[in-house]
Structure to design on (390 residues):
């Protein structure tokens, strides 16, 4: 069975990097072109969650796991909470062609689902070599084109990739955030039950949506919280009008430093007024900025569901879900910021706590989705803190 090689003849898709590297393969999903930064994700499962995670806006995802699509798509494991964020990642790069879906939850073939969501894919790529290249040279800018007729203008694609503005300095949260505030009651997924529903009577949490993953909302609801989601552009007054017991700063795409123009001011007010705050991923980076720390672009980023992180307060190691291309500079934290978690892959910062405000944040994804549930405790720690304060 020939499953892993790019067809030598009649390619229907091509991946072109800004340096001119040209890789032919088979087209999947939507036709047309997508431009973005290529990152690699090492998760072995969870492609439906990954391809709907709004944090991937502006990126093209290479899956290092060779068989993607085997269990189809179920339409339930979708992470974008806002319709505005329905085109998170614009492209998927796969090793093997997609086989017939086999899973009791499967509703659709991955390629058909990608076509409906406007995601362009290419299979037959030597993803191992591409990943090795990213590790050596950093995340390249690239264009994927899918043309059933096999017509490509490589020169124009190289130019487009080379001229693409990149993610540094880009605020993408404003493109994926909800425009209106709403309540969220859905809880976690359980075998034979599906997602639950609960109108919690616990603390009221306002989540600022910079591109929030649904499982963050579900984890909060599962902890008994009442959950209200507000737009990334909500002012401090908008938020406080809702009477929150705590505020969650969500994940999201783009450069935290650029997103900070409207959000960091709000976060500074939350800290100054001692509003209990939990930041996740982009929210973590922006809490750090608000507290006086710095963020910077990483060379290869962290994207996967199998990263070891150490909780410095307990000494425990947890295996976590990661998805970030920017990082908080853990070497130069201001005095009021304590490092609470570190990545055991490269020692980069993976969590902070403010010494002068009830605020904490993590770079990794405690909501998993996809990934292990080791870090669900972060939500519990936050909610227990609120209950103690009440
Ligand atoms: N998942 C996220 O929130 C990503 C945060 C940020 N956009 C980064 O790439 O680092």
């Amino acid at each position: 069975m020939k499953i892993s090689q790019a067809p030598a003849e009649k390619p229907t898709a091509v991946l072109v990097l800004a340096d001119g590297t040209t890789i032919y393969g088979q087209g999947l999903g939507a036709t047309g072109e997508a431009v973005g930064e290529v990152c690699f994700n090492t998760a072995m499962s969870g492609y439906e969650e990954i391809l709907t995670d709004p944090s991937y806006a502006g990126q093209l995802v290479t899956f290092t796991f060779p068989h993607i699509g085997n269990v189809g798509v179920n339409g339930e494991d979708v992470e974008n909470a806002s319709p505005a964020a329905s085109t998170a990642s614009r492209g998927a790069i796969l090793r093997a062609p997609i086989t017939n879906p086999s899973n009791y939850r499967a509703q659709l073939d991955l390629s058909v689902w990608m076509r409906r969501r406007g995601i362009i894919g290419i299979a037959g790529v030597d993803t191992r070599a591409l990943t090795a290249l990213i590790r050596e040279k950093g995340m390249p800018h690239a264009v994927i084109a899918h043309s059933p007729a096999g017509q490509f203008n490589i020169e124009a694609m190289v130019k487009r990739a080379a001229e693409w503005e990149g993610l540094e300095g880009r605020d993408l949260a404003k493109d994926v955030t909800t425009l209106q505030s709403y309540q969220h009651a859905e809880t976690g997924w359980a075998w034979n039950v599906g997602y639950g529903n609960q109108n919690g009577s616990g603390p009221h949490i306002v989540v600022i949506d910079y591109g929030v993953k649904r499982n963050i909302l579900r984890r909060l609801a599962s902890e008994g919280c009442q959950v209200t989601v507000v737009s990334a552009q909500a002012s401090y007054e908008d938020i406080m009008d809702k009477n929150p017991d705590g505020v969650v700063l969500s994940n999201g795409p783009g450069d935290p430093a650029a997103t900070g123009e409207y959000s960091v001011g709000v976060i500074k007010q939350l800290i100054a007024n001692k509003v209990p705050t939990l930041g996740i991923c982009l929210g973590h980076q922006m809490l750090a900025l608000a507290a006086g720390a710095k963020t910077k672009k990483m060379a290869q980023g962290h994207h996967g569901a199998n990263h070891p992180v150490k909780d410095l307060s307990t000494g425990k190691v947890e295996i976590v879900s990661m998805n970030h291309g920017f990082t908080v500079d853990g070497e130069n934290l201001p005095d009021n910021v304590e490092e609470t978690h570190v990545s055991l892959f490269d020692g980069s910062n993976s969590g902070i706590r403010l010494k002068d405000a009830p605020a904490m944040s993590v770079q990794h994804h405690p909501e998993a989705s996809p990934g292990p549930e080791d870090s669900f405790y972060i939500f519990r720690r936050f909610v227990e803190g609120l209950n103690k304060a009440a």
